[in-house]
Amino acid sequence: MDWIDITYNRKSLFIKLIGSLILIAMAVVAYFISGLTKTEGIVYRIWIGFLIIALIFSTATFLNFLFHTIMPKKRILFSFNEKGIKYKDKIIPYDEIEDMSYGLDVSHIATAFWQGVIINKKNEEKFIIPTYQVLTDKEVDTLIFEPIDKARFPGDVT
After folding, report:
1. What's one Pfam family here (predicted)?
2. How does pLDDT run across 123-148, given as a tens digit for each residue?
3. Kindly report the CA angle at 93 between 119 and 79, in degrees rounded to 5?
4. Is the overall model pTM greater than 0.70, yes or no?
């Protein structure tokens, strides 16, 4: 069987970009509502901090979206078939995998900030595939785990 590729989800990135722009708009409105004339004090510093965090998050999301939109070909995160999972040049057979999860893992620099697929192998080894994007639980199930489970357990309907 051919390898089935899991790629970046541009729709998800676009939705997060819109969300981050709404976050900035809310922060700016809240800043102006909190006091147009106050330029010192703890509340002012909290709002400035919130604006800076919102701006950084929005910029990172926008650059990530722009990078994956400009690319002529979708970047492949990893591939799978009924035999195993392939990441770059490494193939992990399903019988070596104890469990898989999605989230943050500080043991790998790429997944300390951005979430990734974490594959725990039976020999206590951990294999991490960074996604460089944040997916919702539904997106993770729909885009990653359900297709892998269908390939791994072709006769299982549950």
Report:
1. DUF5381
2. 888 888 887 777 778 888 888 888 88
3. 70
4. no
